Here is the input.
Amino acid sequence: MLQFSDQSLVIGPEALPALATLLRQPAVSRVLVLADSNTARVCYPRLKPHLPIDHVLIEIPAGEEYKTIQTCDTVWTTLTEERADRFSVLVNLGGGVVTDLGGFCAALYKRGIRCAQVPTTLLAQVDASVGGKTGVDFLGFKNQLGVFQEPAGVFIEPQFLATLDPRQLKAGYAEIVKHWLIADAEAFNTERHNGLFVDDWTSIIRESVTTKQRIVAADPLEGGLRKVLNFGHTVGHAIESYLLTQPGREVLHGEAIAAGMVCETWLSVKKGLLDEDALDKIETFLFSVFEKIQFILLETEAIAEYARQDKKNAGDVINCTLLERIGSAVYDQPVTLAEIIDSLRYYHRL
Here is the structure.
């Protein structure tokens, strides 16, 4: 079992048995499981044998549009009605929406109860469940409300990936690519030739999680270095948030981040940080995996406006994470709204 600070991180077939051991500790009074309508159906049956018989299942609707305070109200109401006390554990079974929202609900209920993350998507396994970030969307802005709170443990069972459709798997791959681009040039140069042709994701998940956890351990509350993990997210979140307001045009988080990485790589070149050859390599690879997100030029200003609410900003300054070379990122790079618009126009032309 891998340990980080006083938390448990278990990857592989031993993950769910390790969770069962955690939940059998005398200090655990109640166990409640948060799942969405998809994971309740396809993942919960695999988890259930590892849970106490008297656990409670809380089911919420699936989808980013339900990552809201209103959904939290449903969770908190159930926790209250079930008389969950401060020695209870909330097990979050799902992708990024469930792990983010569940962690947030646990952090606020009775000033904080423990939660355990059981991520079921590739994106949640390599990114969302690790690092202690929790949150919900508010007024259309991604993760506008949230707290930092480490879970009691993260239990990653790669076999859950067999429940995903190809689009969801591909979306999670974007966060793996991000980790390569900000911190592991060797992996990028090697693995980009394999793409999604992976028989067993375990080693890739382990390496990606290790990269993220090393950065988080150095800067748990995102005062500096941890901001490099936001590469692709300033523009990516803006695209994702805008399209969430357009019924029928919604995109997955990883899809938006892939587009954001193209835009922010281009910005890195325009800022004199990165060379054109690196842009060509990154761009070629990303478009070999991810389909281009469609929007019209007239929408670029409306999309860019969402970047004004990015959490890395300082006052009116939009701070972005950019690349200085493949495998190395720099944070707190000021960009203007006009530059973000230009990056979106560049992406549109490709």
Q: What stands out?
A: Confidence is low (pLDDT under 50) at residues 1-6. The chain is about 45% helix and 15% strand. The longest helix spans residues 166-183.
